[in-house]
Amino acid sequence: MSDHNIATPFPGLDRPLAIVDIETTGGSVTRDRITEIAIIEIDERGVREWSTLINPLVPIPKMIQSLTGITNEMVASAPRFEQVAKEIVTRLQSKTFVAHNVRFDYGFIRNAFAELGYPLSLELLCTVKLSRALYPEHKRHGLEAIIQRFGINTDARHRALADARATYQFLRIAADDKPGETFMTAVQAQTRRPSLPPGLEPAIIEQLPTGPGVYYFYGENNNLLYVGKSINIRSRVLSHFNADRASAKAMAMCQQIRDIRTDSTTGELSALLLESQQIKTHQPLYNRRLRRLSTLYTIQLHEDQQGLLRPEIIDVHAAARTSKMYGLFAGQKKARETLTNTAKAFGLCDCVVTTPGPLRGPCMSRQLKRCKGLCTNDWSILQHNTALMDALGSEALKAWPYRGPVAIVEQQNPNDNESPHTAFLLDNWCLLASAHGTGEPDWEQLKATSNNEALLDRDIYRYLVKVVLKPGKDLTLIPLQ
Question: Is Metal-binding among this UniProt entry's keywords (predicted)?
Answer without folding.
Answer: no
